[in-house]
Amino acid sequence: MNTTQTQNSPRADPTTILDTALRRAITTTLGDDYRDTDPLIRPSQRPQLGDFQANAAMSLAKRLGRDPRKLAQQIAKAATNELSAIAEPPEVAGPGFINIRLKPKALAEMLTAVDTAALGITPDPDTRPIAIDLCGVNIAKQMHVGHLRSTIIGDALARILERRGREVHRENHLGDWGLTIAMVLRELRASEADLDALVLDDLDAAYRRAQHQCARDTNADAAAKEVLVALQQGDADVRRDWQKIIDVTMRAVYESFDLLGVKLGPQNNRPESSYRDQLPEVVDAFIQAGIAQEDQGALIIRFDDRDRPLIIRKSDGGYLYSTTDLAAVRYRVQQLEASRVIYVVDARQRDHFRDVFDAVRRIGWDLLADGTRAQLVHVPFGAVLGTDRTPLKTRSGENVPLTTLLKKAIDRGTLEVKKRAADPAAPTHGLDPRQLAQIGRAVGIGAVKYADLSSDLVRDYVFNLDRMIAFEGNTGPYLQYAHARVCSIFAKANVDPQEVGDAGFVLKDGSERQLALLLLRYAGVVADTARTLEPHRLCTFLYDLANAYSSFYERCPVLKAQSDPLRRSRLRLCGLVRRVLADGLDLLGIEAPQRM
Ligand code: ARG
Predict the structure, then answer these.
(1) Relative to the CA of 147, which ligand 1 atom is closest?
(2) I need a labelling partner for 462 at 20 to 30 A (CA). Which of 58, 136, 401, 450 fits?
């Protein structure tokens, strides 16, 4: 970055500008050896003291055996000139915090600079493709909550990465190629089921019967294995039946995608079976490279730091889940040219991915054409628990099917929306039932998604619709409601947001400043979320923004502002808040209705 530009142009985000200036001030004060010291710029904890604080003086003073307050004063003094274009002279507080307050004009200019279609978000300089492994349902079984989480989180991460200009391959690694399917196929054939009339519940039932039988009856088990061999060898009859049960399963899966509003469809399917022809060659490559070895007839890869090896071929010659995953990584890195391969899969598969990634690195299949190595990451997530804090099960002990959960959430959302619409003062009052149902669906699904994304992903969470659908607190509906409230200002004033698009920002009240400072952070938060793959960062930001908007709304009359310039400034501020809320929710895959 060019120096004059960072110094004088308010076009960069303030944290970057302050970071550069304070680095220079530290060097001026302590000499060139300290050039790489992070000045630790943070948004201020106490807005009355400043907008930002630089916290580095304390630890520097400790290291140097100097008085922290004095050192902070020296750095602050050195920074004063550097910052004069955009900030008041920095002040030292407490044990050595350097407080910085932006000049109102600079803050207004910075805000104007981010009030564009991109909302300040700049494209990722790295333009290489990314692959995200998500959903991964198993054929012949209901999609369960684990697949729900993978789908929701994976789709949100894809949207966030795409928002920064990355090309994302959403890879649905469908489980369509193992013994489970063969067991179901055998069972259906034995019971002479009419495969053309099947629905997913029948497959589920068949799976349970098959499991039961194969466990007790070795003949059934052997027969299932025979079906598997026939399937894998391409037996036409078995293949035809196999395709039928795939179709039945996928119909229900697509229905769930539709309910969820995720950007996923048949074009994203890259099932386990699509790698089948590569498996012998995959295994050979590991043998040739001296990485895999025979062990009691099986082929395994050992790791120095763990007891359990990775099995890549069974003693009966069959291939495994792991073998397919090795082929899939190779495909993603070498064919899709993904510089980052992200696996959004249940935390219980942590060891599996550690083994697979290590095996891949050993053989060098993570090597990209440009000589760099692809980043292989497992994004593990926790279980969804019932209100009794045990994994969500139906009363009879089955996994709860996904559609049941989603429909419940939609019903609850709709109920809530209808209840509110009954109030004659509500903006939704008088909407027809179809419109209300649409909003209810957005609220229900938004609630589920937000609950899924807003806490640390590896933590288990309780599926509690009461809490998730509350319009208060850190929930999806609360954010949707904040957005709708901003919309209603424009509706009330009968103003098109475009109309105030060029109003000058007048940021006098503390709550206006806070709102402005938050809005300036949006692009950075999106970038951080993309880097860390932690959607809760974006959620927290949006929640803070919604809260800051509430305080602003309480303190600052918008339509009845004292002067016309102030009214126009506040309307423009509202418009920007609305767009950032809508955009942020969209990145999380959550709809933002205009009225609620
Ligand atoms: N089908 C797997 C399961 O349900 C998930 C697939 C995850 N992706 C992968 N590449 N292994 O457990």
Answers:
(1) 4
(2) 136
